[in-house]
Design brief:
Layout: H1 30-44, E1 49-51, E2 53-55, E3 58-60, E4 65-70, E5 73-82, H2 86-103, H3 108-124, H4 126-137, H5 141-166, E6 177-185, E7 188-192, H6 200-211, E8 215-218, H7 225-237, E9 245-247, H8 252-261, E10 265-271, H9 274-285, E11 296-300, E12 305-309, H10 315-327, E13 337-343, H11 347-359, H12 378-394, E14 396-399, E15 403-404, E16 412-413, E17 416-419, H13 426-429, E18 436-442, H14 445-452, E19 460-464, H15 468-477, E20 482-485, E21 521-529
The structure holds nicotinamide-adenine-dinucleotide.
């Protein structure tokens, strides 16, 4: 059955020129600093508002609510949200299922235009979106700006990719036939993002799903629900028909799980932790009554990413890269360089320079744009401090090692470094997801690569070396989805560095790359015999 959409008032847009990454903002430029402060003030006046669920375009309020709070100032409420449960998850899936009957046939121009128009609107309010990220998840200005830029890149890149995919042809036309190949949407997707890139990852997974003709239930992290609500507002403003993206707020174990288990959900696009990802993988594999497909899962998980510093490296550049990768956004990135593996001849010099570098890292309210802000929550702070205590028994503490007390009771932790950590230590194996750097000594480059590969993860990695032979070996032997040579292991750029990891780091879906949209489609071939 083909139904028509309630509204398709999306102003038509087509990509212009070649894809280019959104430029980063230089906040040292007086005008930009001024604009950012104005946006912080504007958004500051909007804190504490209530946001509904959006199911099939309907605003839904529930008796049960939850608040998101500023991690730098926990007394400050950022947004009040509805605690959705199993019932709301079901209603959201039904709304998306109904809308799919029409949206799957919506003209490609509509779907592409929706992404491009959304990008235009977000670009116009770039500083405002940065400010929401500062308040809700504690990013400093540059980290917030990089995330908004990545969100814009995803919207633009996937719009172009959808057009490219639509032009696909079978490699061969069989004699006497007309052979077609087309990529169809899958159906209803559950999009479940993490809190640490609550705009870019939520937008990226959602955009890839809807531009290929799927409909979505977006269930953001309860740590960052407001940013997702602002994003859905912009989609609506850009002309998105009701029911294409349904906003469901709620916790993971009940609300998120209800989506994963729902028989009408066709695929799950998840980015988050390894344990939750594996649980989703297992639950999605089990068919439920009424389910007529094998659910697809796109799972991008954690990391224990290493930076190898060879004895012939430029040590100052390596130190700069390691500090940025380990402590950028308080180490709360899947790509964070949480391990430095340093060759013996330069080990002591490297430690001294790292120690000095860490002393210069300012830690305070991200509104003031320090180098490092808080971690996301009290629970996260407890967990990270627990790892720091473990580290004190496993390695030699050379910097930091405790919480930072502030007037506003923000969830701050000192940038912390452990040296002389053995390969099997917990702090060398497990994802800590906080500002903790573990340094391991390697006798030579071969051993360094062996240590680097010696965890269950395989997301990002970097090597600093001036030797082409070392770099070539790393290309072949360093088993990660995203390898960087003579630069830090964070900061993947859409298009240039398609992103996704090996092993327990995920299904290597390569967000921002030429294969990504395929995960959201199923290919159909049609062969028509031509009359003789
Ligand atoms: P998380 O796994 O705790 O939660 C992620 C999302 O899953 C949230 O929306 C949460 O509400 C939901 N969820 C939790 N339990 C669920 C369940 N049982 N069923 C369904 N949904 C459930 O992760 P997080 O703390 O939000 O994010 C941090 C993690 O994400 C880190 O491990 C980090 O490495 C990883 N991450 C990976 C990438 C990547 O591209 N590989 C990018 C960013 C973050």
């Amino acid at each position: 059955m083909q139904t028509t959409l309630a509204s398709t008032q999306i102003p038509h847009r087509m990509p212009r020129g070649r894809f280019e990454n959104e430029p980063f903002t230089d906040f040292s430029h007086g005008r930009h600093g001024h604009e950012m402060r104005a946006a912080l003030s504007l958004v500051g006046d909007q804190l504490g508002r209530e946001y509904p669920l959006i199911l099939g375009g309907e605003r839904v309020l529930l008796p049960s609510k939850f608040e998101s709070r500023n991690p730098a100032k926990p007394a400050e409420v950022i947004g009040v949200h509805q605690s959705g449960g199993v019932g709301e998850a079901g209603a959201a899936v039904e709304a998306a299922f109904t809308t799919f009957t029409a949206w799957q046939y919506a003209p490609l121009e509509d779907r592409v235009s929706l992404l491009l128009r959304t990008a235009e609107l977000i670009r116009e309010r770039k500083f405002e979106f940065c400010a929401w990220l500062v308040y809700e998840v504690g990013k400093n200005w540059a980290e917030a700006d990089a995330e908004v830029a990545e969100c814009l890149d995803f919207l633009d890149f996937y719009a172009r990719e959808a057009l490219r995919l639509a032009g696909s042809e079978t490699p061969i036309q069989y004699p006497g036939e007309r052979d077609d190949l087309s990529y169809l949407p899958l159906g209803v997707g559950a999009v479940i993002p993490p809190w640490n890139f609550p705009l870019a990852i939520a937008a990226g997974m959602t955009a890839a799903a809807i531009v290929t003709g799927n409909t979505v239930v977006l269930k953001p992290s309860p740590e960052a629900p407001t940013i997702a609500a602002r994003f859905v507002d912009v989609l609506e403003e850009a002309g998105m028909p009701a029911g294409v993206v349904n906003l469901l707020q709620g916790d993971g174990p009940h609300c998120g799980n209800a989506l994963v288990e729902h028989p009408k959900v066709r695929f799950i696009a998840f980015t988050g932790s390894r344990p939750v990802g594996l649980e989703i993988h297992e639950k999605a594999a089990k068919p439920r009554p009424g389910q007529i497909w094998i659910k697809r899962t796109i799972l991008e998980l954690g990391g224990k990413d290493a930076i190898v510093v060879a004895s012939d490296a430029n040590v100052d550049e390596a130190v700069e890269g390691v500090l940025a990768a380990a402590f950028g956004y308080s180490g709360q990135k899947c790509s964070a360089g949480s391990r430095a593996i340093v060759e013996d001849p330069i080990y002591d010099v490297f430690l001294e320079k790292i120690r000095a570098g860490v002393e210069s890292i300012s830690v305070s309210d991200p509104k003031e744009n320090p180098r490092m802000g808080p971690v996301i929550s009290e629970a996260a702070r407890r967990k990270v401090l627990g790892y720091i205590e473990t580290g004190k028994t496993e390695g030699r503490l050379i910097a930091g090692g405790g919480p930072v007390a502030t007037e506003d009771d923000g969830y701050y932790i000192e940038p912390t470094v452990f040296a002389d950590v053995p390969q099997g230590a917990r702090i060398a194996q497990e994802e800590i997801f906080g500002p903790v750097l573990t340094i391991l000594r390697a006798a030579n480059f071969s051993e360094a690569l062996e240590i680097a590969n010696g965890t269950e993860f395989g997301l990002t990695g970097a090597v600093y070396s001036s030797s082409p032979a070392n770099l070539d070996r790393a290309r072949r032997e360093f088993h990660v989805g995203n390898l960087y040579l003579n630069r830090k292991c964070t900061g993947a750029m859409v298009g240039a560095h398609p992103f996704g990891g090996f092993n327990m780091s995920g299904t290597d879906s390569k967000a921002g790359g030429p294969d990504y949209l395929l995960h959201f489609t199923q290919a159909k071939t049609v062969a028509e015999r031509l009359s003789r």
